[in-house]
Specification:
With 136 residues, this protein is mainly alpha-helical. The chain is built from 5 helices and no strands. It starts with a helix and ends in a 9-residue tail after the last helix.
């Protein structure tokens, strides 16, 4: 029975008729995606206010959520593959921010933080994560 269900899930995933997550609930992807999007927005907002510690905190949270989503994505789904590219870019940009440390000019991490937010927004589109502004 489990083999039949798995086969059915794989066929539906290839046909694009199931969410990008296989073996994990789409709800988990949505939850991580929503939290990641919120942290990305907060990260850039704090950058504008000059709060370096908050930028680092939110950037680390973005990385944590992106890594969790990458583990949940089905490699067979084209939306998952496209989202993975953007999630990896968000992680890379957040690693740049993290490598700068806390004792720097607060404006310095703003460029990579903004790039990370753009990557998160793009990944969210491919994951069908609601943006919170009424749009999808």
């Amino acid at each position: 029975m489990k083999t039949t269900l798995l086969t059915l899930a794989l066929v539906l995933a290839c046909a694009g008729l199931v969410p990008v997550a296989l073996g994990a609930s789409a709800k988990e992807v949505q939850e991580h995606g929503t939290a990641m999007l919120r942290d990305a927005e907060d990260m850039v907002m704090h950058g504008g206010m000059g709060d370096t510690k908050a930028i680092l905190h939110h950037c680390r949270e973005v990385t944590r959520h992106a890594q969790a989503i990458l583990k949940l994505l089905s490699p067979a789904d084209p939306h998952g593959k496209e989202a993975a590219v953007h999630l990896q870019e968000a992680i890379r940009q957040c690693q740049r921010v993290d490598s700068m440390g806390v004792n720097i000019d607060p404006g310095a991490p703003l460029n990579p933080a903004t790039k990370a937010r753009a990557a998160v927004r793009e990944a969210a589109k491919h994951l069908s994560v609601p943006s919170g502004d009424g749009k999808h």
